[in-house]
Design a protein that fits this description.
Length: 175
Amino acid sequence: MVSEFPIDNYKITKFFAVCLTLARNKPNLECLVDAPRELYRRPSMSDNYFVRYLPFLIHILLAGGIAGAIVTLSWLIGQRKPTRAKMEAYECGMHPQGDARGRFSVKFYLVGMLFILFDVEAVFLYPWAVILRKLGHFGLGEMFVYIAIVLVGFFYVWKKGVLDWGPEMARRRAE
């Protein structure tokens, strides 16, 4: 039997002799540091660069194959009996009323954009908090300026009434 790691009995005996001798003097695992490193030889890598990606390619092909097989088997084995109830659009258990292409209020989009804006600005606080000690007083002052600018924008949006959705706000504006 041919092995990838050519080790003869002399090297193994020598390794354990050195390790056991060192183990008497050093009771912990330091004996392994001083032991000869001739026992392990890295297997030679192929010169082809793309061979390294072969396991990843096999993984992708296997996952795609399993997913395709599951969908195909479901289509082949599954029952298809279309009825009027099955073909209707599902609206959370309620029967659909009116046109599905109704118009949304602009406030919906404004609140969505503001959420994204303030969420991204809050994310900028995390890296600052990690390196606060390295930045010192200058970094602290800069972050106070940043937070002040964000708060000015927040108070502007608040005073404009963009965040007010309730029916009482609509009544106040109508008056």
